[in-house]
Amino acid sequence: MKFTPNISIMNALLRITCGFTCLTWAGAKLAKKPWNNSYLIVAMLSGMKIGEGILRYCPVTDMVEEGLEKKMDSEESEFLPNRH
User: Fold this and answer.
1) How many domains does the chain have?
2) In 3D, which of 48, 56, 41 has the Cα closest to residue 18?
3) Is residue 42, in this structure, part of any structural domain at all?
4) Is residue 1, in this structure, part of any structural domain at all?
5) Is residue 13 part of a domain?
6) pLDDT by residue (tens digit) across 4-35?
7) Which domain holds residue 42?
8) What torsion, rounded to 10 degrees, do the Cα atoms 41, 42, 43, 46 define?
9) What HEC string does the chain produce?
10) In Å, how far are 30, 53, 58, 61 from 9, measured between CA atoms?
């Protein structure tokens, strides 16, 4: 399966920057309170955002765009006359 980039360069840079910022914050909090699992979840989500920025591919954006395309296709077929 081949993924094509579906986010812009500026969006990718923003995801990388925010991802590293949140990952650093979560790492510092985990160092003080390692039993708190919410910081671990933030660290994992931050890592996911960093990966999305590096690859320039966001699966959520892809699903939303695909859903909109399907919706537009179904709306177009509603307005076409039936040929029987």
Assistant:
1) 1
2) 48
3) yes
4) no
5) yes
6) 899 999 999 999 999 999 999 999 999 999 99
7) 9-79
8) 120
9) CCCCCCCCHHHHHHHHHHHHHHHHHHHHHHHHCCCCHHHHHHHHHHHHHHHHHHHCCCHHHHHHHHHHHHHHHHHHHHHCCCCC
10) 31, 8, 12, 15
Question: For residues 57 and 12, is the Cβ–Cβ distance under 8 A?
Answer: no
- Residue 13 to residues 30, 46, 79, Cα–Cα distance (Å): 25, 14, 41
In a domain, 4, yes or no: no
Interatomic CA distance for residues 60 and 75, integer angstroms: 23
Cβ atoms of 50 and 19 closer than 8 Å: yes
Q: Please, what is the average pLDDT of the chain?
A: 89
Task: State both tokens at 45.
Answer: 């989500």
Q: From CA 80, how far away is CA 74, in angstroms rounded?
A: 10
Point out the least confidently predicted range of 54-58, 60-64, 78-82. 78-82
Q: Which two tokens stand for residue 80?
A: 């076409």
